[in-house]
Fold this sequence. Notes:
By secondary structure, the chain is an alpha+beta fold. The protein has two helices and five strands.
Amino acid sequence: MMKVITFKSRSVPVYYPNEQSASVELLHHKLYEMELDFDFRKKWRRIKSVEMVRDVAIFQYNDGTKLYLEVC
């Protein structure tokens, strides 16, 4: 499934399996916690999409690199 999440005026698609919809809510909460992290906010501008795998968010950058973030 897919859901669009917005953080700092930028929307990004989040892909996740049906049974992991609660993980998307955890991701939203984690993004709220990282709102004051300037380094993460700079990285967020280059993110193309997010994939949820259990309790890990995999951020896919435009150049193909990935950033892994534990959301639990």
